[in-house]
Amino acid sequence: MFSGLKDETVGRLPGQVAGQQFLIQDCENCNIYVFDHSATITIDDCTNCVIFLGPVKGSVFFRNCRDCKCTLACQQFRVRDCRKLEVFLCCATQPIIESSTNIKFGCFQWYYPELAFQFKDAGLSIFNNTWSNIHDFTPVSGELNWSLLPENAVVQDHVPLPTTEELKAVRVSTEANRSIVPVSRGQRQKNSDESCLVVLFAGDYTIANARKLIDEMVGKGFFLVQTKEVSMKAEDAQRVFGEKAPDFLPLLNKGPVIALEFNGDGAVEGCQLIVNEIFNGTKMFVSESKETASGDVDSFYNFADIQMGI
């Protein structure tokens, strides 16, 4: 617990929380860093604080907070009776706000060496992030209680790195290409009418291959819109992959698939070239043409959202 603090920088190092519940309350002008995984975290009555939370297996709940800036990863995210929050978020389910105003969201963007293992310990996938798909329980006609931060927002300008010697020992980077969670555009307006779906099947190098493909595509000027990790059954494959389904059916038993949606003029051809050059011999589903790609994307993500209850 951190309670009743003012003008302090405090934190927990990797291994110090180890999956327990955590509570932050009545803090003012504090910088708070929880560099570990936890069960649930509640933040009550905090003002003008900077908060980093490592992966949370269950829910993160902000109540009656204002003027706080946060980076966090969780299964469920809820905000009630808050105003002026900025949140760089990784959330496996739809984030919910209630009786709150001026809540701004961006995509989680953070790295330190222990973070990937903490995601595993918390049972969270780095590819399941609905950070921009916000549900407002108490909408006000003609007003929007939430918005997305500018795409070029620099995480460190909002959530600066810790300055105390103890916490500086955690080797943090906020560079987009090092982020444990792939930085996606989410629900932002797409730049192009052309999207491409790529599905990677479970294997020893699936996560590394997904990261490599994202780096290559983003490096060529395409945008990562969304990612998903989900289990597929034979009938799901039939619906998503159509006549190609028989090629992929034997691969579905190995574990969940990882799907990536890229956007930009020439995305389908660009993606096919990279996959053929770099991943030759690795079985992947890639949209065949610009004409079929948007249907591929829609059918996969419709299935995935139903499967995950989003």
Keywords, please?
310 residues; alpha/beta; Pectate Lyase C-like; Alpha-Beta Plaits; 2 domains; 12-stranded parallel beta sheet; 4-stranded antiparallel beta sheet; 23% helix; 31% strand; GTPase activator activity; C-CAP_CF_C-like; lipoprotein
In short:
It is a lipid-anchor. With 310 residues, the protein is α/β, with parallel strands linked by helices.
Into which percent range does the helicity of residues fall?
Answer: 10-25%
The CATH architecture of the largest domain can be named as 3 Solenoid
Helix count, per DSSP?
A: 8
Overall 3D geometry?
A: globular
- Low-confidence parts lasting 5 or more residues at pLDDT below 50? none
Pfam families: TBCC
Binding site for GTP: 58-59, 75-78
Organism: Callorhinus ursinus (Northern fur seal)
GO cellular component, one term: cytoplasm
